[in-house]
Write a structure and sequence with these properties.
about 70% helix; about 80 residues
Length: about 80
């Protein structure tokens, strides 16, 4: 049980990191420092960006659930 939760945690951590890095910069932050703020904001959100948002949120929820589950299993010594 602990091993499977640890594997889920590592995989979701990697997916979460990659999906955050794939997001387009919205400007005003560090992304504008490296030229990300030069793009025009006329296009709006595309389908790919919306799907990437969904992937990021879903992965974050699974990541948090894996952390809570791993903590409960280790604390109560379930298996």
């Amino acid at each position: 049980m602990v091993l499977s939760l640890q594997i889920v945690l590592v995989v979701t951590s990697l997916i979460l990191g990659l999906s955050v890095l794939l997001h387009k910069g919205k400007g005003g932050g560090l992304s504008s420092l490296f030229g990300g703020g030069m793009q025009s904001s006329l296009s709006g959100s595309t389908v790919v960006e919306k799907n990437l948002d969904r992937l990021t949120v879903t992965t974050a929820v699974i990541w948090i659930a894996a952390i809570v589950g791993l903590n409960l299993v280790v604390h109560y010594n379930v298996g």
